[in-house]
Amino acid sequence: MNKKVKWGVLGYARIAKEHVIPAIMKSANSEFYAVASRDEEKLKSCREQFGCEKTYKSYEELLDDPEVDAVYIPLPNGLHKEWTIKAAQKGKHILCEKPIALNTDECLEMIRACEDNKVKLMEAFMYRYTKRTQKVWEILESGMIGDIKYINSSFRFHLTRYPDVRLEPGLGGGSLYDVGCYPINFIGMVTGQTPSSMSAECVLNNGVDVIFSAVLKYDSGIIATINCGFNAFLRVFSEVVGTKGVMEIPDTFFDNAGIITVNTAEGKKEIEVEASERYVLEVEDFADAVLHDRKPLFSLDETVRNMKIIDSLLEMVHKKG
Are 78 and 102 in contact (CB under 8 A)? Predict the structure, then answer.
């Protein structure tokens, strides 16, 4: 089959410009066809840089274009639900940036709209497509570190660019939504379980969490901790502790080459990780799911589980004030 999925992009956000549009253009089964933005300068910039066939001044116009097969939504978190549902009603398949929504109710409403209109929906957790993630799976399945007892995962960076939509409470700002969703997803991937109890602490600044830590406890006996934030130096790291060893995963959510370290009674083993193109692989998988009417790699069951945990954690900290 030589058919390619024609993509439209709702909003010329930085992640679209720097990562996802280039990925669409590199992918074997996709075509970057259209972009919509209310900012004419952004449309001009997109035409000059990528030469897309169509540019629209409103998201509605793009969704009305019958040539568009799928849309990528990099809009602020608070707009994901509205435009996912509108895209579904126009028969477009949807790759939506994480977090998929602001709460579980929104998430379930979006899923129902996509099911009713027979379109695909996937949350854009691109790290799930990397060689690093594949190696993590291989190590876990090998039994090298034994039965898992503890997991720690962090994703934080120092946000110094202002203003920034991630600091706007009305649009779904906050570090838990923006980067904390990754450690939560990683822990869910490793355990395959839902926590039975949780506790959380954060520091709020103008209504959004700028640093957030949580402890998750599971009926299986596993305890996991997450840390995320906008107010400290970059830290992207995870460790999985088992009865036979410890796996350390630097750059957990990135696609650069690197090393995963496994420490056991036999000593230290360094496992090389090849570089990969996480966004290209994500786009190709989703497009292939559209073309062959199958489920994409990243499931909506995981999306719902992630959202429920985020809901519970945010409720805890906001109750504390």
Answer: yes
Q: Indicate yes or no: pTM above 0.85.
A: yes
SS3 (DSSP) at 305: helix
Residue type, 272: E
Assess contact for 174 and 91: CB atoms under 8 A: no
Contact 57, 43 (CB under 8 A): yes
Helical ranges in 52-192 per DSSP H: 59-64, 80-89, 104-116, 131-142, 175, 181-191
Evaluate whether 278 touches 255 at the Cβ level (below 8 Å): yes
Handedness of CA 290, 292, 293, 295 (dihedral sign): negative
Distance CA 126, CA 282 (A): 6
SS (HEC) of 78-119: HHHHHHHHHHHHCCCEEEECCCCCCCHHHHHHHHHHHHHCCC
pLDDT tens across 21-45, in order?
999 999 999 999 999 999 999 999 9
Cα–Cα nearest to 180, from 316, 315, 19, 314:
314
- The rounded mean pLDDT for the chain is 97
Q: What is the pLDDT of residue 318?
A: 84
| C-alpha to C-alpha distance for 283 and 274, rounded to whole angstroms | 19
* CATH tag for 5-125+279-293 (out of 3.20.20.150, 3.10.20.600, 3.20.20.370, 3.40.50.720): 3.40.50.720
